[in-house]
Amino acid sequence: MKKLTFNGLIGGILIGVLLVTALLSLVWTPFDPMKLSFTARLAAPGAEHLLGTDEFGRDVLSRLMVGARAAIWIGALTVAFATVCGTIIGLISGYARGWIDGVIMAINNALMAFPGILLALGLLAVFGANQYGIIFALGIAYTPSMARVVRGAVLSLREREFIEASKVMGNSELFTMLRHILPNCLAPITVLATSMFGWAILSESALSFLGLGVPPPAPTWGNMLAAGRPFFEQAVWLGLFPGLCIALTLLGINLLGDALRDKLDPRMRGLK
Amino acid sequence: MIRFILNRVLMALPTIALVAITVFALIRFIPGDPAELMLGDMAQPAQIEALRTELGLDQSLPQQFLIWLGNVLHGDFGRSIVNGEAVLPLVLERFVVSAEVVVVAVFLASLIAVPAGVIAAWRQNSVTDLALVGTATVLLSIPTFWLGLLLMLFFGLKLGWLPVLGYVSIRDNPTAGLLYLILPVMTLVIHEAGVLIRMARASTLEVLRLDYITHARAKGLSESAVLWRHAFKNAFGPTWTMIGLILGNLLGGIAVIETVFTIPGLGRLMVESIFARDYPVIQACLLVVALSYVLVNLVVDLLYPLFDPRVVAE
After folding, report:
1. Is A243 within 8 Å of B146 when comparing Cβ atoms?
2. Residue B313 has what pLDDT?
3. What pLDDT does B102 receive?
4. Spatial separation of the C-alpha atoms in residues B51 and B280, rounded to whole Å
5. Per the CB < 8 Å rule, is A124 touching B274?
């Protein structure tokens, strides 16, 4: 096992801080993130409000902490949805082959012919613009790439001797698939799921920024940026901190993803 | 050569058909009567009845699809629910605005990022390489809409050098139009350069390991000849494909940048149409962007032999 790289370490720390903050926000935030205070409108960062207050006098740090929770929650559910659906579809497609594979891959390719965010926008028009609409829309938009990766891995695995052996031993197709094929697909699945988590958080913040995501007053990083926009000139912290949260989170995920890919690479090369 | 071109074009046809089916199906998934959806809340019962017949809603789904496809092929995407305008001219007009920004940005980003990536690979693990890769990773982690807001805050509000709100088309007034283009293009260039530097570096690294590079060096060729004449030629292929993908992805994801800089482009139109539940416009936007994505990738594929003639032989 290769030792953890410097980049992986930085990425891990960034994501660790994010997770701890999000968990902490469940039990404690410096202020009530929803509490309005007209005496403390647009207060600059200082001793009382560490990251300042917004146009309604709400504490920015508290709202960012709750926003972290929203980002992780939506990102995780999206990735879970895409990973579960994509893996099942990919396993079936790669293992069954023949016309089933043909039909599934045709639908898959049709969905992949759309840029991801465009497909998500189209699906949002169907599901309605809200938290669960976003999860479904992004989840469906990401499923085809997961299905494709899993199918590719299955296709190369199924010709290997140990799969043959499992069948000769009289194991059922389902057992072989779950016990022998799936565990060997985990490396590419993990790598892709990590990048997907980043895409999901970025897309969620972008959609919230457009007003198509979680509606205010519930705080998300994206809708905080959109709401604070008219006040940036007087209150630069409203434009700075939410964006910084998104950027640091994405940086953490990218660094972690790179490290993960380097580490899992030998196995992935073996799968090709 | 002709066989290669025909082959690629024929391969794109099923994709285009599938895209059309998906766009058609997507709108049909929305609960409710398609004719009522297409006409909005203000429609008269007689109008709805007429459109129902026109869309063939009493017939089977495949027949409905063929009717829709026939209309689309004649350029008839229906009328906007919001203002009753014909959809196609509206969408095409907005598309040109978006395409201008995206094409210029991708061109400039490639111009900067590809040489940077090749140099990073050439000096692998040196300070230059680490600095370039580090910068690239940071750049691609910054969401474009935030970067846009920051650039606007700095160059527009703080320094007052560039206009902040509104939009002037470069075709109406070249000088003013150019000023309005600078910030959105700069935002996209900074972000996409991050993606492309890493891509160009990775594909160059792969090539630099090959024997013919060692051979070229052993012949006594200068490093710049080895790098640009031998390595770059073979390394550019994957990056070229990536440039195509970025171009298509940007067309789909341009909505945030257009919102930040109040550019009346296709992305903005689509978001507004989602708010207004203007389904005919949404449908047309989806189709136009998805088709241009397919076409861009087709053109990228067709030009690929210019960089790597081997693909034709396969």
Report:
1. yes
2. 66
3. 92
4. 13
5. yes
Q: Is B199 on the interface with A (CB under 8 A)?
A: no
Burial state string for A32-52 with b = 16 or more CB within 10 A and e = fewer than 16: ebeeeeeebebbebeeebebb
In eight-state DSSP terms, residue B172 is T
pLDDT for B28-49, tens place per residue? 777 777 777 777 777 788 888 8
B30–chain A Cβ distance below 8 A for any pair: yes
Query: Is residue B183 within 8 Å of residue B155, measured between CB atoms?
Result: yes
B169 by DSSP, 3-state: which?
Answer: coil
Adjacent-strand bridge partners of B79: B86
Confidence tier at B64 by pLDDT (50, 70, 90):
confident
For residue A54, the model assigns a pLDDT of 84
Task: Look up the pTM and report it.
Answer: 0.88
For residue A229, what pLDDT is reported? 87
| Distance of alpha carbon B209 from the chain centroid | 33
Which tokens hold the place of B19? Answer: 């895209």
pLDDT in tens, A249-259: 999 999 998 88
B contacts of A239 (beta carbons < 8 Å)? 146, 149-150, 153
Integer Cα distance of A121 and B26 in angstroms: 11
Q: Report which DSSP code applies to A31.
A: S
Q: How far is B227 from chain A (nearest CA, A)?
A: 25
Q: Is the pLDDT of residue B189 over 90?
A: yes
CB-CB neighbors (< 8 A) of A124 in chain B: 274
Nearest residue in A to B140, CA atom: A251
Domains (range + CATH), chain B = 2-73 (no CATH), 87-301 (1.10.3720.10)
The residue whose two tokens read 């527009």 is: B156
pLDDT of residue B314: 60
Confidence of residue A271 (pLDDT cuts 50, 70, 90): very low
Structural domains present in chain A: 6-25+55-158+186-263 (1.10.3720.10)
Q: What is the mean pLDDT of residues A43-57?
A: 82
Work out the widest C-alpha separation in chain B, in whole angstroms: 83
Rg (CA), chain B: 24
Quick one: which of B229, B187, B199 has its CA closest to B132? B199
Q: Supply the angle between the helices B174-208 and B144-151 in degrees, to the nearest 10.
A: 130
Hey, is the C-beta of B15 within 8 angstroms of any chain A C-beta? yes
